[in-house]
Specification:
Radius of gyration: 18 Å
Largest sheet: 7 strands, mixed
Strand content: 5-15%
Oligomer: single chain
Shape: globular
Bound molecules: adenosine monophosphate, manganese (II) ion
Structural class: alpha/beta
Length: about 280
């Protein structure tokens, strides 16, 4: 089976490496089809494509859109998009728009929890200030010595229900799927195992997604346990969704799973790249 990695982040969103560095790392790790899927932003695609092409690595333009569905944040990956599509770009700009104010609110709450200077600190770590996100806050809090790792910071400060969590209204599911499809891409539910949904809610999400023209679901991702590979393989088959595979790599120091270093998809699944 091809080594396909269709989910990764550069420093254009909350990853650590530049798009060209990611391309080189994907190539070195044996990836054969690679997608850059920065959060709410396609600004890294041109550099990624250029680098991948010069390395003889097949490249797929991607994005990971933040969505609010049933009051929770859900991520929808778009693959094979035309990154110059105007409606997509305009929509993404609007989704990004609330991030700086949200960052100020996060910093204010962190200050009350005893962590000062987080806004400036996080902003300094965000190579693209427009894309200031919780990961940048987490890195600042690690640097400041409050917690040993980014995942500890999420657990104690930034996850829903923790002192630094600020609820936010992202795009709707309908908007995300329509921007992706309008730009010629395929919409994929990212890391379904990560959402705090009951089985019933999860099924409703899938049904809603399918009715909007969504086509795929991540089965093997850096965010799933091996048990979850089987669960979501079964769900992909029964819902008629195309299966996707991606590391969700953010950086060497932080990500458990490196680019391309995932098990293959379970057999007999129709893949999201079957006709590429
Ligand atoms: P944001 O879009 O700013 O709310 O940030 C979401 C990002 O935070 C995700 O894309 C992950 O990179 C990161 N993240 C979320 N939860 C965790 C966690 N428990 N541990 C580490 N990183 C996380
Ligand atoms: Mn991220
Ligand atoms: Mn995600
Ligand atoms: Mn991601």
């Amino acid at each position: 089976m091809l080594n396909v990695d269709l989910h990764s982040h550069s420093n254009v969103s909350d990853g650590m490496l530049a798009p060209a560095e990611l391309a080189a790392r994907a190539k070195a790790n044996g990836v054969e089809i690679w997608s850059l899927t920065d959060h709410d932003e396609v600004g890294g695609i041109a550099e990624a494509r250029r680098a991948a092409t010069s390395l003889g690595l097949r490249f797929v333009a991607g994005v990971e859109i933040s969505v609010t569905w049933a009051g929770k944040t859900v991520h929808i990956v778009g693959l094979g998009i035309d990154e110059d599509d105007r409606a997509l770009r305009k929509g993404l700009a609007r989704v990004r728009g609330g991030r700086v104010q949200r960052g100020r609110d996060i910093a204010e709450q962190l200050e009350q929890a005893g962590i000062a200077g987080a806004f400036e600190g996080a902003l300094q770590l965000a190579d693209n200030p427009d894309m200031l996100g919780r990961t940048h806050f987490a890195r600042y809090i690690v640097e400041a010595g409050f917690r040993p790792s980014v995942s500890d910071v999420f657990k104690d400060y930034l996850a829903e229900g923790k002192p630094g969590f600020v609820p936010h209204r992202w795009a709707t599911l309908e908007q995300a799927v329509s921007w992706i499809r309008g730009a010629g891409g395929r919409a994929v539910i990212a890391h379904p195992g990560r959402y705090p949904f009951t089985d019933l809610q999860r099924d409703a999400l899938i049904e809603n997604f399918l009715s909007l023209g969504g086509e795929g679901i991540e089965v093997v991702t850096g965010s799933h346990t091996p048990d979850q590979y089987d669960i979501y393989a079964r769900i992909a088959r029964s819902a008629g969704l195309l299966a996707s595979r991606g590391s969700d790599f953010h950086g060497p120091a932080e990500s458990r799973v490196d680019l391309g270093e995932l098990p293959p998809l379970p057999a007999s699944l129709k893949t999201v790249w079957h006709d590429w």
